[in-house]
Design goal:
The protein is of the alpha+beta class and about 120 residues long. The protein has two helices and ten strands, in the order E-E-H-E-E-E-E-E-E-E-H-E. The model has no long low-confidence stretch (mean pLDDT about 95). Strand 1 and strand 2 form a beta hairpin.
Length: about 120
């Protein structure tokens, strides 16, 4: 599994190595991309992390596959800014960072959309 983030890119040959790198990436505001291949091919999981908040996107393929976004509080209104205000995310997409980490860890085993969070379609 490969991880690309604002902290660099990492090849992880074991689940433990993947888990350790992800936990480090989640310790600061970050944009994280997880995929099975080094060239960030699909399927992939994209995670934006800021403090205790995160948003997760799942992309099955580049063009016509399933595209999902984390579904948090459906009553949340407004926007949440991530990565130095580079991304404006609808507040309903925001979930706890701890849930996003669980999602990314599950992705290691399945490379599918993890079942541990609720999803909305993009």
């Amino acid at each position: 599994m490969f991880i690309s983030s604002n902290m660099g890119s990492f090849q992880c040959d074991s689940f433990e190595e993947y888990k350790n790198k992800l936990e480090t990436c989640f310790q600061e505001e970050n944009e994280i991309w997880c995929s099975k291949t080094e060239d960030n091919k699909y399927p992939c999981l994209s995670v934006l992390v800021k403090d205790s908040q995160a948003v997760v996107n799942y992309f099955e393929t580049e063009d016509d596959g399933e595209m999902l976004v984390s579904f948090g509080d459906e009553d949340a209104e407004g926007l949440v800014l991530f990565c130095g205000d580079q991304y404006e995310i609808a507040a309903w997409q925001v979930i706890p960072a701890s849930d996003a980490l669980k999602c990314a860890l599950e992705f290691f085993h399945s490379q599918g959309a993890p079942d541990c969070i609720d999803w909305g379609e993009l």
